[in-house]
Amino acid sequence: MKTTILAASCLLALAATPVVLATPAQAAACGGASYGSSAPIGSTHYGVDDVSAKGVACSRAKKVALASEGVGGERYVSKGFRCVPRAMRASGKRPYVCTKIEKPAEGARPKVTFLTLGNG
After folding, report:
1. What is the extent of the structural domain holding 85?
2. What CA–CA distance (Å, rounded) separates 36 from 101?
């Protein structure tokens, strides 16, 4: 009997607890990644920085961003995303905006944005 009451109490407590889920409309800050060096971002290597993901996991967003290596500031396609460069900033970083090629059944297209550091 005590076990049943305890279990019912736990279920009531869980039902009363609000659950906050990230929605596809929220962008996640994913940080930066290197093109292959183990050196930290901002040192003497090349990579991507300020990666953000909207409607896609950070791990996939970083893979899409890292595919910019060697494209020379041109458009490219990676992992189902079409990536378009923007004007080079005074800092020497080039922004990219990548959008999912295939539109989802509901909601906005997933999106990845980032800055290239040097070799992109």
Report:
1. 23-117
2. 27
Question: pTM to 2 decimals?
Answer: 0.71
Question: 45: pLDDT confidence band, cut at 50, 70 and 90?
Answer: low
How far is it, in rounded angstroms, from Cα 78 to Cα 61? Answer: 10
Residue 65 lies in a domain: yes
Torsion on CA atoms 95, 70, 63, 105, rounded to nearest 10: 70
Query: What tokens were used for 9?
Result: 């109490």
Helices (H), the chain: 2-16, 58-66
Q: What is the DSSP letter of 16?
A: H
Neighbours of 100 (CB within 10 A): 19
